Amino acid sequence: MLTFPERLLRGEIPNRDFLHLYGPGSVWVLAGVYKVFGASLEVQRLFGLVQQAAVAYGVFFVARWWGRRVAVTCALLAILLMLPPAGLTAFAWTGGVGAVLLGLAVGLHARTTPDDRRGFRLAVIAGILFGIAFLYRIDLVVACALTIAVIGWRAPRARALGLVGGALGTAALLLAHVAMAGFGNAVRGMVLEPVFDLRDGRRLPVPPSWGTLDGFLQMVGDIPPRLRWPVPTLATSQQLFLWFFANLAAITVLVVVGARALRREPHSVRARAVLAAGLLSLGMVSQTLQRPDSTHIAWVSCVSIGLLPIALMEARCRAGRRDPTHPARGRRLVACGVPALFLLLVVPNFTYRAYADFVAQTFDRRRASFAIERDGRRFYYGDPSVADAANAMIPTLDRLVRPGDRLFVGPTDLRRTVTSEAWLYALYPEAVPGTYFIEMDPGIANARGSRMAADLRRSDVVVLSRIWQEWNEANDSSRPGDPAPDRVLRERFCPVGTFAPWFDVYRRCDRTEP
């Protein structure tokens, strides 16, 4: 989110010059933001806050049909679920979900307004928002299509056409990216590699294990000490297990309640909102099923559990019509209280407790971020030893890296490309990333015959990291791949220095050191 947009501003194209597994929308937008405000971690985080706000406001406006108190509760639930796992990083998924939720909210108003001209305009705006969501993450196409279908079903013809036309017209901007990157590069980078090559190296057991955490980042994040918590809690792995099934249950409730309500009252905007929220969540559930860690469950349950109160309200409202002893205040209390208490009592480590930890850090308590800085550019790391080693390494890199040099960043064992310290590229914008595989995705960068060895051969300076050498998951991410890059490193590069215990720096042997 730092390096990709900046490379775009320098004329490089995703999937042609560097691998980008998702739609181009987030890179385009962030590049525009950086063009105006400058490329920095602070700007990126502030834009991440805007995306988180889009999720919260999208949920709020969808739930607004049930009253302000229910809408505020739903928005707070969504943020409790969405923000802690991802923080304020401007992830493409967060922006895409925010856009699709806002599209749903605007689309519902397009259905209900009596003014035909205003209804058509709102329908077009809703379609544009759905198209933006698709451009951010093309794997949101199913969720967008299902939501559009619910909004457009039995809508006035002009409004339905405006909705679909706005979505298709905006989504068609993807063709501009395909034209710039090349059809083969775009299909391979956005469809074939993430769907077929990356899966074996990123998938986790479904359902998640009851007694142990399956994801390596999850294991690292669960290392004590945690923020003290007054309520007894289950083990973190058990919380994750129950959260996984609660997400699926919430989707089921939304779809079933919404479908039944809409069948009874085809013109009810509330019934349509519940069904649309359920199908939107259902269209995104592959995120949870392919890798059920806290981030991917949160990326779906911010909608399913976040909007669960409207399904419970709708179900209780119908019960209230049959039984007048159910007061409105009681219905609201139950509908809002059940999911809120579930998050508090069952999955606090991923919601309330994590959010409270962020609040404490805001007031300089339990701070767990350590600055790595070069020429006013900063990046923060959660391990002080990594920050110390990186800050010690920077003077050496300053001496070696010249403008236009190719800087290669990867793991010490180039056969195991579990991830990369790509933030180093952001600290050296005058250099060119030395490889197409900036993120170092397993099964892609280390695939037999990949271009990584050729990329390394053309590089000038190499930084290799041991930070993730203990990475171990129940998938193929740690399986050794192509040994060719390691041979190129031994044959062509000379060691310059080791910055214990994390980094090794090399230069091309035929190049004189400054």
Can you walk through the features of this model?
With 514 residues, this protein is an alpha/beta fold. The chain folds into three domains: 1-39 and 91-197, no CATH class; 208-368; 370-508, no CATH class. It has helices at residues 3-9, 25-37, 41-63, 68-86, 92-112, 116-136, 141-152, 157-171, 174-181, 183-197, 199-202, 216-221, 236-264, 269-284, 286-290, 294-304, 308-322, 328-345, 352-362, 384-400, 423-427, 452-457, 484-492; strands at 370-374, 377-381, 406-411, 432-433, 461-465, 493-499, 503-508. The radius of gyration is 24 Å and the shape is globular.
What's the total helix number? 23
Average predicted confidence as pLDDT = 94
Category by helix and strand content: alpha/beta
The low-confidence parts are none
Shape: globular
Residue share in β-strands: 5-15%
Q: What is the CA–CA distance across the termini?
A: 32 Å
- In order across it, which strands form the biggest sheet? 4-3-5-7-6
Question: Can you give the helix content as a percent range?
Answer: 55-70%
Provide the domain count: 3
> How many distinct beta strands?
7
Sketch the major β-sheet: 5 strands, mixed
CA-based gyration radius: 24 Å
What's the order of the H and E elements?
A: HHHHHHHHHHHHHHHHHHHEEHEHEHEHEE
